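Section 5: illustrative case.
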């Protein structure tokens, strides 16, 4: 059976000065030297991308945008296109993060257009889904995740085009930045549901290959237990990715 290579990804959100970003990427590059069998990715703010690429030297760290527009160019003040991300050497793009959905009112229909544009450009989407605390407490978790998946991958489903390189991230909104992590069992249950959804809508081969990351208060102390679950293939880390030592410890979870 083909193995899914684990991925540890850092979402820096709207944090860090230019100099802090440079220091952080240098300490990550140094800290992961010799580390094998884990893909490492960071998503810095747009304005830091080129600088971060330069500062990492020869380190094999993937770069991602935190968002993008679905058009290639045009009169969209304040937006960045997938092509621009690629010019800044990004191979991946985070789409549908709950902060985009909730604060910036992005709908799953908009995210669907973005997923399609990213895929057209061969930019790998890291598509985020997750329920709020209210939805979880009302027993709606699976219905919410299903609807987000159904709507965010409409174009893929029509074309039967989901690539095995596509990455999904389960980020329960109540676990983001709250210090409250989903238990490994709670996370695994939703990851398994997402994999089953891929199998139902695409095929078993794709479902077996797509990586599903967990995000929400991941730290050095809880990563190993999360990663021991069969359907958790990595982590999308927010707060703990802003410090070199904690991010490197998370990346080296197998050694802990
Ligand atoms: P925290 O790790 O700070 O909870 O953030 C998670 C997240 O939103 C990553 O995209």
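Designed sequence:
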């Amino acid at each position: 059976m083909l193995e899914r290579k684990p991925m540890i990804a850092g979402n820096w959100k709207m944090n860090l000065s230019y100099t802090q970003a440079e220091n952080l990427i240098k300490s990550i590059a140094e800290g992961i030297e010799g580390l094998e069998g884990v893909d490492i990715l960071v998503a810095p703010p747009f304005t830091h991308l080129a600088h971060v690429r330069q500062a990492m030297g020869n380190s094999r760290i993937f770069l991602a945008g935190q968002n993008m527009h679905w058009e290639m160019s045009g009169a969209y003040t304040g937006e960045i296109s997938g092509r621009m991300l690629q010019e800044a050497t990004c191979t991946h793009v985070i789409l549908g993060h709950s902060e985009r959905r909730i604060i910036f009112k992005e709908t799953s229909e908009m995210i669907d257009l973005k997923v399609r544009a990213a895929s057209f450009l061969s930019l790998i989407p890291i598509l985020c889904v997750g329920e709020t605390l209210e939805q979880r407490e009302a027993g709606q978790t699976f219905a919410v995740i299903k609807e987000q998946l159904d709507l965010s991958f409409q174009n893929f489903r029509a074309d039967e085009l989901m690539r095995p390189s596509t990455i999904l991230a389960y980020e329960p909104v109540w676990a983001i930045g709250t210090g409250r992590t989903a238990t490994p069992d709670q996370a695994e249950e939703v990851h398994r549901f997402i994999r089953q959804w891929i199998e139902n809508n695409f095929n078993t081969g794709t479902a077996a290959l797509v990586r599903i990351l967990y995000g929400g208060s991941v730290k050095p102390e809880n990563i190993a237990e999360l990663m021991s679950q069969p359907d958790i293939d990595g982590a999308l880390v927010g707060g703990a990715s802003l410090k070199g030592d904690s991010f490197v410890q998370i990346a080296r979870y197998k050694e802990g």
